[in-house]
Amino acid sequence: MNAPATILPHSPLDRLTFGNSFAALPPSFYTRLMPTPLPAPYLVDTSAGAADLIGLDPAAFADDEFIQAFSGNRLLPGSQPLAAVYSGHQFGVWAGQLGDGRAILLGDVAGNDGGRLELQLKGSGMTPYSRMGDGRAVLRSSIREYLCSEAMAALGIPTSRALSVIGSNQLAMRETQETTAVVTRMAPSFVRFGSFEHWYYNNQHDALKTLADYVIAQSYPELLDSDNPYQALLAEVTRRTAHLMAQWQAVGFMHGVMNTDNMSILGLTLDYGPFGFMEAYDPRHICNHTDQQGRYSYQMQPQIGHWNCFALGQALLPLIGSVEATEEALKHYQAQYAAKLDDLLHAKLGLQTRQPDDDKLFDAMFGVMQASHVDFTLFFRSLGELRQDDPASDTVLRDLFIDRAGFDAWALQYRARLKAENSQDQARKLAMHATNPKYVLRNYLAQIAIEKAQNKDFSEVRKLLQILEKPFDEQAQHAQYAALPPDWAGALEVSCSS
């Protein structure tokens, strides 16, 4: 198949002036190659919020040059496309060399915040790292990643972003034949824990140092003056990862595949596959149908985050210089996670002060939630409506519980705790509604949008994005998107093919 042509000057995309910092690394870090053109591409949806991060006028979305550029059919001037190599532990087992098997990095462009953002086409064709894959992404998984990337950003959770989804009638085989698509992902860096593991396990310590120096210079320049910049790098990545795990837990988000090759060196949520948001609360819930052992269940995510940081520490050991210094960088993970989650839980319950028994209140809350398998998002959103002196106001909240007596007993404790800090109902409600989303990307909502898109109706993708961009707003006209999932949603399964 022919390589992409170059987009001509005076395109609406002229604003995107490419740099290629990753391409300046030695050739062993990547393979230069062109995206494989996507036959007869069509626009599925675009994110104005993501475009704004790189100063791209949404008017460019209507131009055919946009579709051609972000389907991989034409090369943007200055871009030096490449696929990066990395390795990793998958489901706790060393998998050896992996790499960008269906993603091609176009380069980096200036962001509105003064930094730079890399643009990557996911689903843009085979690379030397595709192993047995076809290099394509299907429309289903592309829409899921697109919507969840933007939804997580709106929730205030660190994440890669998604600029667009471009579809095609070209087919690829998954469980069945499905149409293909390309999603454009954006992040300051797509370097992973597994990028460091690759050089460590291949005993190439010079390359390991080159990568670490690059990451520090590009993303953590404040660490350059540290006594041991590599130890400082590990400590900062460990801190960010601990905080990210707490943020996931606080909104009920489950990643599904927390392999080290899917862990961002910047502490971003990366590589959306079989993710899910908790509905009927069960800490043992496994969102990934492929994960038969439950390694990546909801309750395991914080522990796996810690495990992955240890894997990164092992890879950085030759640079840090000693086991003791490496352990020093890792030792604060649990305290950082616990402190961040404690802050988030206090905010979710509208508590402005700390009391010695707050952990018992939280534990009791999760206990009654689990006993009745209460919808996670609805519970916390409804809790903001509770009034201290009017138990009769609990009707909607109470009706979420099978064990209403259990809820009543906990609500009594909660009310006493609110009174102990002279909480004011209206102010607390506003604060809680600003931290507890009304709208999250439930799998069944994504499925409805996907099925319509597969029939060339992209209106539900657009509508869902607009709702998810304002997850804390009431949006009374869209209240049905915050309702309990229908019965058929319980039969939905997502797997690594998602």
UniProtKB/TrEMBL annotation:
The keyword Endoplasmic reticulum does not apply. Pfam families: SelO. Its EC number is 2.7.7.-, 2.7.7.108. It is an enzyme of class 2 (transferase). ATP binds at G99, G101, R102, K122, D134, G135, R185, R192, D271. NCBIfam families: PRK00029.1. Belongs to the SELO family. This is Protein nucleotidyltransferase YdiU. It comes from Paraherbaspirillum soli. The gene is ydiU.
